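Readers of this paper often ask what the protein records in our data store actually look like. Below, we set out a record of this kind in full and without editing:
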Amino acid sequence: MTKINLEEFAYSEIKKMILKHHFQPGEILLETQIAEQLKLKSRTPVHYALGQLVANGFLDKKIKKGCYIRYPTPEDAEQVFSARNLIEIESAKLAAINASDKEIEELGLIIDNEANIRKSGDLTAYASINEDFHNYVAKISKNKYLQQFSEYIFWRSNVYIIFFHYKFKLNKKGDNNDDIHTSSTLQHLEIFNAIKNRKPEEAAEMMHKHVCYTSESIW
């Protein structure tokens, strides 16, 4: 691998490790240890990846101690989901207005993949495709700032879902209508249909419903 590829690999793998509960909130992520776990000869790619995760707001850093996942609080959760609601509502609305037919087709493929992954029971893959859906809606809004803020705020809200959501599990049979992922997939489909049909107000309303549902399902 080239240096850039190693850095991208480390960045991606550390995010996966967080999704798999390999680290807990407040725990320091040690460069040497992570490099060994990823079978990297040098800790340089890990150092770069952690720096990028801090810069992107995914991790926090203590001076002379290292990077860590900020321990969430109810007050922070309220602010995070409030901000996410505002950002994603506008993203969905603009996506219905600005997205090209090709981009809407690509969003539809994400929806199809999400349904298949949910049935497979692969938690990490589901978390990834869920993130892909939200980030792509922000991307096709054609507002680069919404896209940037969406990636950060989605990750912050994901910290609560990953670590504090007692329902954050997949039903391998995929037939439990009470399962949050079933509901989430159906809500994504509603958002997609509103965007596809060029109904910005409906897309915004469906996104608002979805973010509120996610927030209310945590505690």
About this structure: The mean pLDDT is 86. Residues 76 and 156 are 10 Å apart (CA to CA). The domain at 3-68 is CATH 1.10.10.10 (Arc Repressor Mutant, subunit A). The chain is about 70% helix and 5% strand.
